[in-house]
């Protein structure tokens, strides 16, 4: 049997560069994951459950904070419908992380709605579980697009398991660090992937817009009381839900509008 020809020098250089960057991302990811267990624990303050708008309307307690989760249901179903009918994917296996992402978004509607109906630590678990599923599957989808489809799909289960485990760890120990890392560190890793690896599709910058919407949602959350005092009828936390759902819609919009890019060499690592 004739041995395979060596890769051209340019391709070999690209592959070596990609492998170095993969090792960097892996080091940052694993390093951050283990570091959180050595930090002084942080705990959920009881005041977190006291939202500015606690009005009961039409028999629904904390009504607007409950109902403002409905856009997650809409965009989650919309995304799942898109993925079952069509979608511009170079490799059909890339769909799986996106399916899990939109399932997480859909379940966020029910989990967050349940929590806001009766806010306490026990119901907050069901708010956070589907959100970690969405964050971790988005990280998996980004790995699949930017590094390797096979690697992204293989990482999907472990990443979602880490996200769910971070919520369980908080509930069992009271330490919020692993959950905070699952949410915010995953965003950092996605940003690192966007910066270090070329896209397989157009509209890659849309994820930066998504990040902007998410930051705006967190700002609205932090200004919950002030916004409610200023408007008299709409709280910052309600706005947070609406803007976060808009961020998810922007992800869906990206998937609808994007198209595959042609590149002379795609170092899709195994």
According to DSSP, the number of beta strands is 0
- Give the overall form: globular
What is Rg? 20 Å
- In percent terms, what proportion of residues is strand? under 5%
Low-confidence stretches: none
Distance between the termini: 23 Å
Task: Report what the structure shows.
This protein has 270 residues and is mostly helical. It has a domain at 23-37 and 59-200. It contains ten helices and no strands. The chain has helices at residues 9-35, 63-67, 70-85, 95-117, 121-146, 149-173, 177-196, 206-222, 224-231, 236-257. Helix 1 (9-35) runs antiparallel to helix 7 (177-196). The longest helix is centred in the N-terminal third of the chain and has 27 residues, at 9-35.
Which key terms come to mind for this protein?
270 residues, mainly alpha
Write the layout of secondary structure elements.
Blueprint: H1 9-35, H2 63-67, H3 70-85, H4 95-117, H5 121-146, H6 149-173, H7 177-196, H8 206-222, H9 224-231, H10 236-257
Helix pairs in contact: 1-7, 3-4, 3-10, 4-5, 5-6, 5-7, 6-7, 8-10
Please give a quick description of this structure:
The chain is mainly alpha-helical and 270 residues long. Helix content is 70%, strand content 0%.
């Amino acid at each position: 049997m004739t041995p395979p020809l060596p890769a051209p020098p340019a391709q070999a250089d690209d592959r070596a560069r990609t492998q170095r960057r993969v090792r960097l991302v892996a080091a940052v990811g694993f390093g951050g994951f283990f570091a959180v267990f050595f930090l002084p624990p942080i705990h959920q303050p009881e005041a977190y459950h006291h939202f500015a708008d606690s009005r009961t309307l039409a028999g629904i307690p904390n009504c607007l904070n409950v109902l403002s989760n409905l856009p997650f249901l809409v965009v989650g179903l919309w995304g799942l419908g898109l993925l079952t009918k069509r979608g511009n994917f170079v490799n059909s296996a890339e769909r799986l992380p996106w399916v899990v992402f939109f399932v997480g978004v859909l379940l966020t509607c029910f989990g967050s709605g349940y929590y806001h109906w009766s806010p306490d630590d026990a119901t907050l678990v069901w708010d956070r579980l589907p959100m970690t599923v969405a964050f971790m599957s988005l990280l998996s989808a980004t790995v699949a697009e930017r590094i390797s489809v096979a690697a992204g799909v293989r990482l999907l289960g472990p990443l979602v398991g880490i996200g769910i485990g971070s919520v369980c760890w908080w509930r069992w120990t009271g330490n919020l660090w692993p959950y905070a890392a699952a949410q915010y560190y995953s965003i950092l890793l996605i940003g690192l992937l966007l910066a270090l690896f070329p896209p397989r599709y157009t509209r890659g910058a849309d994820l930066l817009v998504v990040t902007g919407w998410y930051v705006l949602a967190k700002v609205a959350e932090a200004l919950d009381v002030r916004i409610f005092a200023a408007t008299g009828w709409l709280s910052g936390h309600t706005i947070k839900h609406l803007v976060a759902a808009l961020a998810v819609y922007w992800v869906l919009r990206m998937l609808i509008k994007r198209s595959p890019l042609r590149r002379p060499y795609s170092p899709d690592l195994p």
